[in-house]
Amino acid sequence: MEKKRFADFSLQNQNAMRVYKLISLVAFIAAWQLLDLVNGHFNFYNPLLFPSPLDIATRAAALWSTGVLQNHIVASVSRVFIGTLIAFPLAVVLGIGIARSRLFEVVFEPVVELIRPIPPLAVLPLFILWFGIGELSKLMFIAFAAFYIILTNVMLSAVNIDVVLVRAARTLGINGWRFYREIVFPAISPDLFIGVRLGLSAGFVMIVAAEFIAADVGLGYMINYARAFFRVSDMFVGALTIGFIGFAVNMVLVRIERQIFSWRVIDER
Q1: How many domains does the chain have?
Q2: In this predicted model, what pLDDT tens digit does every residue of 73-128 receive, in sequence order?
């Protein structure tokens, strides 16, 4: 007799985990909206300073219907992706070079380690002086923010390639460019993908600061413009839009990562 199967609602079930996370998010939004309803009766804070989810959604729908929000989204997302793309080649070359070459390590690692602790926001004024107030300064600022994250992931991955694998390649006479093509790049590819994902996340974090200065379109510009005119709902729309886009991009990349590197992605919790 076949045993009766029961639904698996444990935390080890990935589908159940997705449902729980969705419930958590819905509960947070509902509590926020409930707080606004309670405040409507007791007035213990100014609703203009902390609008409800319904007010923010209504404002977002209005901005979307006019096409304004889409223009800001396209501008910001384009800057983040292009800036990360600018950082990618140099970060990969330097990361592999420092990890696998003594000469690269001696020449470049001291400079890299000296600049690494500098917060991206600290160099934003310099980027404006060097590259002007146009698109280039924003792209280079995003590239700078993403560069060190990608570089660090590549360096750590390349320096920790399995020694047995390296020795086997040397024994088989795999040297030069062939060694990097057949051994190094396949070995670091999962961590390289993670580096790009984290670099894009850093770009979304920094895009607001980049667009605060001398921009006429973008979600950062939208937030700063709304601040000047005390449009708090617009500020929330801009901030939450960046959050939603960053979250969506990250989830898509995580899904792709799990498909490509299914042998690597393991969750044993």
Answers
A1: 2
A2: 999 999 999 999 999 999 999 999 898 888 888 988 898 889 888 888 888 888 88
- Same domain flag for 22 and 112: no
Give the predicted TM-score (pTM) of the model: 0.84
CA dist 252 and 193 (Å) reads 12
What is the extent of the structural domain holding 35?
Answer: 1-45
Q: Does residue 30 lie within any of the structural domains?
A: yes
Q: Are residues 190 and 253 in the same domain?
A: yes
Query: 167 and 73 share a domain?
Result: yes
How large is the greatest C-alpha to C-alpha distance in the chain, in angstroms?
Answer: 79
